[in-house]
Amino acid sequence: MTTPRRAVLASLVPEGDPALLELEALLGNLGYEVAGTVFQKRAAPDPSGFLGQGKAEEIRLFAQAQGARILVVEGELSPTQRRILGERTKLEVWDRPYVIMKIFEARAVTAEAKWQVQLAAYRYEIPFLKGLGRQMSRPGGGIGTRGPGETEFERHRRKIERRIGAIEEKLREVRRRRKERRERRRKEGRRSVALVGYTNSGKTTLLRRLSGDPKVQGADRLFATLDTTSRSVLLPSGQRVLFTDTVGFIRRLPPQLVAAFRATLEETRDADLILVVLDGADPQVEAHYEVVLETLEALEAAQVPRVVLLNKADLSAAEASEDCLSLLRARGERIVSGSASTGEGLEALLEAVENRLDEPRGGPPEPGGEEGGIPACSPA
Q1: How far apart are CA 330 and CA 361, in angstroms?
Q2: Is 229 in contact with 216 (CB distance < 8 Å)?
Q3: pLDDT (0 to 100) of residue 379
Q4: Mean pLDDT (whole number) for 108-114
Q5: Per-residue model confidence (pLDDT) at position 194
């Protein structure tokens, strides 16, 4: 019987915080069992080791007793913090961005997705090179180096930068071809809809249902889709529109990944309409909605017209769904409740998509509701 890989979590956020629960789910998707979580209450991370020295020693002893070899921090570590925390706990140390990178690495199937993940990983790695120890400070010489005074760090950094340059060139070609295809579609009068949403909200299942193509396969796991998948969908009027599934969003998606997946995410910015898919059965649905809006802003896609699907209506309580519909409409959204799994409400969704496409293109929805914000949705 295989012994499960075990990890210890460390957090400055309180127990039960959504970000911490999400990190546990990410680790589960990587095949790691969480042996336990160690909390430290402090106003800000320790500048040197993120956690205090006493708490680091507590983690070392706990991990030793639990047979855990990895410490995962809910947060983002500087190179110094990661090095010192590793020295104090005698564990391999990961932070939240690194865990997300590992998920992307595990999910990458096509050459393009693998290039994008490699590019993000190289960009993430460079700041940490100086913390790799004495082996990175030994001078060396030889053919192809800049002389006997060049350090191992400098050689390794130049090697990574060359790889980054090669991958960026490949992705520039991908972006060029995608741009040509978009321009060709525009000239032909074909319109496009980009599916966006929090990871595991049901976007791929929706695309399979709307297109009727059984080859479009999703999965009940985080970041099941990293590549763009496009299919033609028939609207109620008889016109066909191209629907494109994109990579899912998540809290604090590492900027290296956003930059690396630029070629993929540009499909969102250049679409005629954005279809936001929300998991209506998730208690954090409104928080996920906010993350989607923030990510669209970062992608310069906030001005693209949009329709929202409150998905998984078959799994959420009717009263909670109505609350969410009312609250999101108060934010100015065009929203439909339905289920990609059962097909419920999807005719109304396609009508909403067609009506929105036929409207003159304007700015984003104007927020509504009472001054000071609106209460959160709380699906059962």
Answers
A1: 21
A2: yes
A3: 44
A4: 82
A5: 94
Which token pair is 73?
């921090």
Local confidence band at 18 (pLDDT 50, 70, 90 cut-offs): confident
How many Cα atoms sit within 13 Å of 248 on the Cβ side?
Answer: 27
97 within 8 A of 76, measured Cβ to Cβ: yes
- Helix then strand then coil, in percent of the chain rounded to 5, is 45, 15, 35
What's the pLDDT at 266?
75
Distance CA 201, CA 22 (A): 14
Residue located via tokens 């998991």: 279
Q: Please answer whether residues 137 and 151 qualify as being in contact, where contact means their C-beta atoms are separated by less than 8 angstroms.
A: yes
Q: For residue 8, what is the DSSP state?
A: E
Closest CA to 343 of 202, 173, 146: 202
**303-327: string of b/e by CB count within 10 Å (b at 16+)?**
ebbbbbbbbbbebbeeebbebbbeb
d(CA 213, CA 208): 5
Amino acid at 106: A
Q: What does 141-183 look like in DSSP terms, one character per residue?
A: -STTSS-TTEEHHHHHHHHHHHHHHHHHHHHHHHHHHHHHHHH
Please write the tens of the pLDDT for every residue from 197-248.
Answer: 998 899 999 999 999 999 887 666 666 666 678 999 999 999 999 999 988 8
pTM of the model as a whole: 0.79
Q: Give the integer Cα–Cα distance in Å for 90 and 71.
A: 9
DSSP type of residue 46:
B
| Confidence bin at 364 (pLDDT 50/70/90) | very low
Using left for φ > 0, alpha for ψ between -120 and 50, and beta otherwise, residue 189 falls in: left
Q: Tokens 């199937």 correspond to what residue?
A: 109
